[in-house]
Design a protein that fits this description.
Helices cover about 25% and strands about 35% of the residues. By secondary structure, the protein is of the alpha+beta class. It has a single domain (about 1-195), classed as OB fold (Dihydrolipoamide Acetyltransferase, E2P) (Beta Barrel), CATH 2.40.50.120. The strands form two sheets. Strands 1, 2, 3, 6, 7, 8, 9 and 10 form an eight-stranded antiparallel β-sheet that branches. A hairpin with a 6-residue loop joins strand 1 (about 45-55) and strand 2 (about 65-75). Helix 3 packs across helix 4 (about 175-195). The relative contact order is 0.18.
């Protein structure tokens, strides 16, 4: 009976954590186009995960994970250092794991295209993070035609956008990495041109 109570309490805690981690502006899985991802993020990098470290925030109320990235390319924005640290909500400390539904998964040794922006996380103000969760991370994979970038959002259902599209950019096959990076540069140039006209 005590074990059942402990399990029930743990489930309530996981549910509470999931609820806390779903502010509408940051975790809505409304499908975003590549144009929208480029427009809403200040920094876009291609890089390899060096390591990851999970820890309790200062208040000991939420687990965060700092992920060190060694960038190979900066598609948008500027980096001041050779490495960049991205802070994610969730992680594992001891026997406790905080899982963010629809959150990004960054594994040491693997390469990704990351759409990054500053955000206030629980106990981490103005942290550089993947604000768009799984939609802001593309796995870089080797394919027959070279490197491809495949959105992690393919693993989660997306609410269709205003045009009725519900597939992540590139779909399950992904986008050829070089083509994606050229598209990001073109989108940014077009968006900057629009801003200048205003």
């Amino acid at each position: 009976m005590q074990a059942a109570r402990r399990w029930s309490g743990g489930l309530a805690a996981v549910t509470l954590v999931a609820g806390m981690a779903i502010p509408a502006s940051a975790t809505t899985l409304l499908r975003q186009s590549l144009d929208e991802l480029v427009a809403s993020n200040r920094t876009i990098v291609v890089g390899q995960v060096v390591d990851a470290h999970s820890y309790w925030n200062k208040e000991h109320t939420f687990i965060l994970t700092d992920v060190r990235i060694a960038p190979d390319d900066v598609a948008k924005g500027r980096l001041q250092n050779r490495e960049v640290t991205v802070t994610l909500m969730g992680g594992k400390v001891g026997d406790l794991t905080t899982l963010i539904v629809g959150g990004p998964e960054l594994v040491p040794g693997k390469s990704y295209v990351l759409f990054l922006n500053q955000a206030n996380l629980p106990g981490a103000a103005n942290a550089l993070t993947v604000r768009d969760l799984c939609q802001g991370v593309f796995d870089v994979e080797i394919a027959a035609d070279g490197l491809r970038a495949i959105s992690q959002a393919n693993q989660h259902p997306l609410v269709p956008d205003s045009r009725g599209s519900f597939d992540a950019p590139g779909g399950r096959e992904g986008l050829q990495l070089g083509t994606m990076l050229r598209s990001i540069h073109d989108i940014e140039a077009r968006q900057n041109g629009r801003q200048e006209v205003k």
